[in-house]
Amino acid sequence: MITAGIDVGTKDSCVMISEDGRIIDYIFIEDLKDEINEIIRFLRDHSPQAIACGFGYGLPVKRLSELNDRVLTLLTLSFDRPIMGVRLLIEALRKYLGEISYTIPSVKLLPTVPAYRKLNKIDMGTSDKVCSVALALVRLKEMGINFTDQNFVLVEAGYGFNSFIAVKDGKIVDGLGGTSGFPSFSSSGALDLEVVALLKDYPKEMVFRGGFKDFLKCEIDEIPDEALRWMFEYIVKGIKVMEVSIGKCCQIVVSGRFFDLYYDEFVDYTGFKCFKLSSVKASAEGACIIANGLNGGVFRDVVDHLELLKASGSILDYIAHDLRKLFKYPI
Prior knowledge:
By secondary structure, this protein is of the alpha/beta class. It is 37% helix and 17% strand.
């Protein structure tokens, strides 16, 4: 079965084509706004039977053709013009390939995550992180570890954000998203509420700022050794936070651009035994796996074990009323 997976990243985006887990083709896109037609053409040329969309905060599994504009807004929570490229892609997919394109839930929407862990959270791990977990389940199973025996923390450190997902018995039970966790290369992560109280405004594009890049004034492949140690410390803190939810984890799974560059240095510094997801783009490959499973293919067991079809609710659930009434947008 030929399927497609789409991952929208901070630095670039990937559209991947896979046949029952074997990568056939892929393209990287740097500016979504300028390449929407190219993406649609690429997908049509390969005629996938299902497309999984790892966009933002996700939704319970639905065909894009079933969704109205208000619901689509919840995928990205994007209202600022500079970052509307994702919205344009979603609208194009809904128009041209909506019957075979599926939304993927984010961590917060999964029934395997206890409700109390969702309090006042939106970003517990975006839907592309769920896709990366799907790939990790498959890779570890190929190593002889059954889903029910898989206990790990997935660390995805990219150009923009660092996310940490806790997996217990092969199910996602907790997550620390890029905007709710520790500083990363581009993003500040969670902000001190006293800093927030001093801000006169906080446009959505600011979630991509305030990280080490702003302080170091360098690119991700130019990080000096001392600053690398600072970043490693924050990654270790994220892992330790997730261990509270699963007990002492026996496996750390890593992926993302940061680890493509600094995996050996991280292992040397921390002494951790890590399993690196070797992939052109882990989340896009994981999305192909999920698309296959949603369409009844060989990876249906992955979709079932992660309980993706049981995802429900909204990313705005479990947010205190006193906070919601201060939202600047009517959502």
